[in-house]
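[job 4417] fold queue: 2 targets
>>> target A
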Amino acid sequence: MKSLLDFIPLIVFYVLYKKTDKTDADHPLLTIFGLTGGVDNNHILVGTLGLVLATILVYGYLFVSQKFRLEKQQWFVLAMTIVFGGLTLALSDDYYIRLKAVLINLAFGLGIAISPIFTKDRKPVVKKLFDPILNLNSQGWVKLNLAWAGLFIVMAGLHGFFAFVFMGGEYWGDFAAFGDVIVMMTFMAGMFVVLRKHFKLDETAIKK
């Protein structure tokens, strides 16, 4: 359920991004909040405003439903969205919102890579997540941890490529909305194929 809720702000961003004219500096959503439009990036500004508002609402709901607490990564994503989204809107400069996903993915990648240093048992963080379903030796967990760290670093690179290099960022909004999902699903499919022999079998199923 929580994973599905995370997609709501992205959907809001994408719909507004696609529906807004680049040159519409007087878009109603910008006007309501007293924001100044840009020259040809108003589709990003309106989408960013929708993203920030939707993120606050979603994480507000999660805060209440999780007994008035958020997980560390949720606080991080919320803070990054508000800070970089706020800078984008305040300065009418989409550079900052483009940079947000790069930094978030880099932070997750580096965090996963160095997680054994900070955990009490010195175990990779992915072991805590996948130990119930995977049977790996210590070296296997290290490799899987590095693979997940590499995934987020690659996604950071892709966000940077589509935001600042490829076609002047023309397709950045499309990648921002769907890129992470496509890359993640591809990675998960590959992980399933590579580790298919290491999945723990349901003992009840075996007995039957």
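>>> target B
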Amino acid sequence: MAGSQDFPADPRNAAVRVYVNGALVPRDEARVSVFDAGFVLGDGVWEGVRLHRGRMVFLDAHLDRLFEGARAIDLDIGLTRAEVVAALQATLDANGMQDGVHVRLMVTRGLKKTPNQDPRHTIGPATVVIVAEWKQPNPALMTQGLSLFTSTIRCSPADMFDMRLNSHSRLNLITALIQAIKAGADEALMLDPAGFVSSCNATNFFFVRGGEVCTSTGDFCFQGITRANVIALCRDNGIPIRLANFALKDVYSAEEAFVTGTFGGLTPVSAIDGRRLPAALPGPVTARLRGLYDALKDRAAT
């Protein structure tokens, strides 16, 4: 079994240099304090970015989300937008990276004088870490697909825990994934508080029924950059798409389904709650959208 984040090992990653608060250090020397707010509480925000043909694609959208999330939790990143870009590029240059790379940018509230949740006990600037690795999605997923299991863990509304924040706090999503793994599936499909289909534990969810691409309203799911790109591609290329509240019975009658994320792009789904989807993988609509997305990514890299 393998989730959407699965990847073949690349031996080059053993020697990567990691950005830690302005220093580029060997992987096995990258450290943060046990008093760091990220370690103590998961207090911080992060982004995942793809390096494709020498360019960090869709970077502006990722930085918009990063800074909006930081402002929402009153976190001062301590770097300007231009300085964040420079730090990302310095990390890539230090590792000689040009293509096929996934970059994880992590920002926490920083060092605390004691391990508690009160942000007033922060005693230093934000902690900024950048991990860049040669990492490609497992190619077998294109024909094997993902098996999903509907978790009892619900996506939360914005006034409880805003799913649209790329927060380090992920325990609810990890719990949902554990349920799916224990049930023999690859990833968790999650419902919103009203019982409508929302997202997966690490990706956004789409399904196709009657030739129409369907996805949630977006009120209770990740503010996915790839999700937004796929929705725009449907609208720009005459592919019917509907954002609405969908019940599980709607999903069970789908011809095909896929999930989206920065790392994997579009990944086909083969089964949901033990029900095999009828289309050979990738399904025709999934394959068309994947081709359109790859072309969009190529344009973004020029």
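[job 4417] complete. Note on B: The helical segments are 37-41, 59-72, 81-94, 141-144, 171-182, 225-236, 248-252, 284-300.
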